[in-house]
Design brief:
Elements (H helix, E strand, L loop, with lengths): L9 E4 L1 H14 L5 E9 L2 E10 L14 H9 L4 E7 L9 H6 L1 H4 L4 E7 L13 E14 L7 E10 L1 E3 L1
Parallel strand pairs: 1-3, 1-8, 4-5
Antiparallel strand pairs: 2-3, 2-4, 5-6, 6-7
């Protein structure tokens, strides 16, 4: 989907899917949880219609995430439309870390969004209420970065830009 310059697209997420993501995060603690979101692009942004947890296969899952390759590949071979990745920061705020930005090229060419969740420890929850999660959504953007060695040589670079999140 082409994005008009300056347009702020919204990520729409049903509350039931947000709660499913939150449950996955809390069940994975103290490790980082990860998965993908499936959905579709619309004129107003991206609409999520499903969350698929994926096993964290990182050697150090307390501080990093790595999607299980078998589960990741199976999703792309199915008819599902993967639009974004989700992972958690169990001990920090849900903003991109330096490690997230370094790993971004692994996902940037095939995904549109990057979601980061973290436990919301400032709100207590009873057994009857879902445990709260802080969740931020980011659009993956690419731009051409000119090489310092040759003015005509360029390589794609990626960054994350926060986008509005509409939980319905």
């Amino acid at each position: 989907m082409a994005v008009l310059h300056g347009q702020q697209n919204t990520l729409s997420l049903p509350r039931a899917i947000e709660q499913e993501m939150s449950r996955h995060m809390y069940l994975s603690l103290p490790q980082e949880a990860c998965g993908v979101v499936l959905g579709e692009s619309t004129a107003s942004g991206i609409r999520i219609n499903r969350f698929q947890p994926i096993r964290n296969a990182a050697p150090d899952p307390l501080h990093h995430f790595s999607l299980d390759q078998r589960e990741w590949i199976q999703l792309f071979l199915s008819d599902s439309t993967v639009v974004g990745i989700f992972h958690t920061h169990p001990h920090t705020s849900p903003v991109p870390s330096q490690e997230d930005l370094r790993a971004l090229p692994n996902f940037a060419g095939i995904l549109q969004t990057y979601l980061i969740g973290a436990p919301n420890l400032s709100v207590s929850a009873s057994d009857e209420v879902e445990r709260p999660m802080l969740l931020n959504a980011y659009r993956i953007i690419s731009y051409e970065e000119k090489s310092r060695s040759a003015a005509t040589s360029s390589s794609p670079s990626y960054n994350l830009v926060q986008m509005p999140l509409n939980v319905t």
